[in-house]
Amino acid sequence: MDKPVNVPIDNPDSDTEWNDILRKHGIIPEKPPSPTSLIEEALTEAQKQAHDNRLEGKGLDELDELEDEEDAEFLERYRKQRMAELFTISRASVFNQVHPLQKPDYSRDVTEASRKAFVLVHLTASLGTNAESRLLTELWGDMARQYGDIKFCEMRGDMCIEGYPDKNTPTILVYHEGDIKRQVITLRELAGTTTGIQDLEDLLIEVGALKANDSRLTDSSSRNGSSVFASRQSVPISASTQDDEDDWD
To answer: Could you tell me which of 184, 201, 194, 218 has the C-alpha nearest to residue 135?
Structure first.
């Protein structure tokens, strides 16, 4: 019987002619790609994407200001694209105000309506002493006017779900395609009593109701496409509460 031959190997990661021969015959594994080259490729791709997407989120006035800097044909093509997007948004903006809810109409006004558009419900406190609830009511009106293609609704928590505690208000319920996609219990999950429009916009981006490059976003130029909600977990509504809702949903 032939005895196995011990092939001398100094350093399998070295770029030597001997190692190339050993790799060719499968004696040592192929050398992994250099991490430096992978990083360079990633940076090149990121720069290319940044260049290709440099006009995303810009309004028509901003595009007009770039006439001397951009290729005229490319700019005109992008301007037409933006006009088409704005027309689509305008045609879909049929809500434009906060819609008060009544329990008998909840299924129609929320669940069924969410099959055509995102629906956000603010469950308010029963008393006017809840500062977070009062703040969200003000923000809700601003958001409804800004994003008319999304339906913003409001209803007292204890009138929506029997026995719903004020300590859980304000509560935000996000509906889409007939189901609850997200729930936010009190503004502690956002920024508490300092919650603003951008915090709510981040939530809408997180659930897919808005795109990160939507030109309507507050200070959209400073956003990097990530959301503060990526690392946050919402507090689930209790099973008994969900059952109450299912009774009339």
So the answer is: 194
